[in-house]
Amino acid sequence: MRKRKGTAAAFVFPFLLFFVLFWLIPLIYGIWMSVSKYSLITGYSGFVGLANYIKILFSDSMYHKSFFLGLKNTVIFVVLTTPILTFGSLALALLLDRLPERLKGIFRTIYFASYSVSVTAVAAVFVWLMKGNGGYFNNMLINLGILDSPIPWLEQQPFVWAALTIATVWWTIGYNMMLFVNALNEIDMNLYEASAIDGAGFFVQLRYIIMPNIKNIFYFVLMTTIIASFNVYGQPRLMTKGGPGETTKPLIMMITSTIMDRNDLGVGSAMTLLMGIVIVLCSIGQYYLTKEKENLV
């Protein structure tokens, strides 16, 4: 019995060690910094309580404006990308599931390959494709006679949001698609055959066979996509630098600017914790909404 307990502890210990080192200690340290006056140059300068949070949430300071502008930009990005990355990846998975077996591997590789590319490379490619003057897309559309003048993809709204959405979808949709493909492969083929005998078409099968069997994966993809979109940083940082103005500057860029440019680690830590609370609340709300719908079904 002792040997079994020792073996179990040996397996659990690495997880607990990394959990404490890379999650629990940084969290506690971040909470402490968020209630302190702290800068990168002078370090700790005293306890301030909830003053940093009040400064962010209720004052008329630049921190208040930066936080809520960054939150607004992040929510816009989430709203633009999440439906496409969820329902679009499901549509691709359903299409792939109906291809001949010899073609499935090829198309899985094609769609998933983009996910292995770094965000730096993705941003560089799409900047080249979508430059206002001399960009590949604009040159092609002008040469085809579709456009008379170039579209300012990276310089003017709403085109900038379109460019960021297209780049993000191209980069990450393959990962979600593979999750749905694996879920579809677990469905019993006898269900399809029985429903086909009864005259059920694709949409009937989608409603009564496919969606009930992949609902857990669907909710997982939806939740992880929302969380990932809330943590967006690389695409706007590398493609638009948060512009034009600060219209595509997400919350993480605002936090980075608060810490690095304004040298205020205390307020930056408070912003980070508030962002974490927003993500947790979104996840809890989504969980209860989906759970409610599941119970109704």
- Reported CATH architecture: Orthogonal Bundle
CATH superfamily: MetI-like
Instruction: Kindly report the average pLDDT value.
Output: 87
How helix-rich are the residues, as a percent range?
A: over 70%
Strand content: under 5%
User: Could you please say which CATH topology applies here?
Assistant: MetI-like fold
Structural class: mainly alpha
The outline comes out as: globular
CATH class, named Mainly Alpha
Low-confidence stretches: none
Number of strands: 2
Task: Give a brief rundown of this model.
With 297 residues, this protein is mainly alpha-helical.
Architecture blueprint of SSEs:
Blueprint: H1 2-34, E1 36-39, E2 43-47, H2 51-57, H3 62-97, H4 101-113, H5 119-130, H6 136-143, H7 159-185, H8 189-197, H9 202-230, H10 234-239, H11 251-260, H12 265-296
Antiparallel strand pairs: 1-2
List keywords for this structure.
MetI-like fold; 297 residues; 12 helices
Characterise this structure.
With 297 residues, the chain is mainly alpha-helical. It has helices at 2-34, 51-57, 62-97, 101-113, 119-130, 136-143, 159-185, 189-197, 202-230, 234-239, 251-260, 265-296; strands at residues 36-39, 43-47. The protein has a single domain (60-296), classed as Orthogonal Bundle (MetI-like fold), CATH 1.10.3720.10. The protein contains twelve helices and two strands. The protein has a two-stranded antiparallel sheet with strand order 1-2. Strand 1 and strand 2 form a beta hairpin. The longest helix has 36 residues, at 62-97. The mean pLDDT is 87.
